[in-house]
Design a protein that fits this description.
The chain is of the alpha+beta class. It has two domains: 1-30; 38-167, Beta Barrel (AOC barrel-like). The chain has one helix and ten strands. Strands 1-4-5-6-7-8-9-10 form an eight-stranded antiparallel β-barrel. The radius of gyration is 26 Å and the shape is elongated. Mean pLDDT is 87; it is low at 22-30.
């Protein structure tokens, strides 16, 4: 092997030896950490839902598209608009799914807008409460970076919820 070729290999080896630790450090470097996860619970109440159109029926099931206002307290504080669909089965059990938009919400000492997706089922009775889960779809303002999920249980226009959340930087 000629001398120039050996020097080229040595130069490359030194370059790799200097650059490799920098590349490894960049690959391992963590972005700013998210906030510590928090948990809370609370209550909510609904206004009487307003149908978005006439109900439809098929095979003993009745289908509704509805809008309501929800007041939320404790871990989440705010007044929200809820748009949802509900299927009421002949048994009295229901399936619901929809979106909650809380335009002025407070969570974890921060305020802004939060949008949640939810779904659940039950008969809205003590023996069969409407129970389900919800998740944060998006957030803005002081709630930017909000991630979270929770569960809820509802009987006759009101209920309780639990919520786990954190904020990404």
């Amino acid at each position: 092997m000629n001398k120039a070729l050996r020097l080229g290999h040595r130069s490359r080896a030194r370059w790799v030896a200097c650059v490799a630790p920098l590349v490894a450090a960049l690959l391992v470097a963590q972005p700013a950490l998210a906030t510590t996860p928090s948990e809370g619970s609370g209550t909510f109440t609904f206004t009487t839902p307003i149908p978005s159109g006439p109900p439809r029926t098929a095979d003993g099931n009745t289908f509704f598209s509805l809008t309501a206002t929800e007041t939320i307290h404790l871990a989440i504080e705010g007044i929200a608009t809820v748009q949802f669909s509900q299927v009421v089965h002949a048994s009295g059990e229901s399936n619901v799914r929809g979106v909650i938009t809380c335009a002025v919400c407070s969570i974890g000492g921060r305020s802004g807008m939060a949008v949640f997706r939810f779904e659940g089922n039950g008969a809205f009775t003590p023996a069969s409460p409407l129970a389900g889960q919800f998740v944060v779809l998006s957030a803005s303002g002081g709630l930017s970076g909000l991630h979270g999920e929770g569960t809820f249980s509802s009987i006759d226009g009101g209920g309780t919820y639990t919520f786990s959340w954190h904020f990404d930087p």
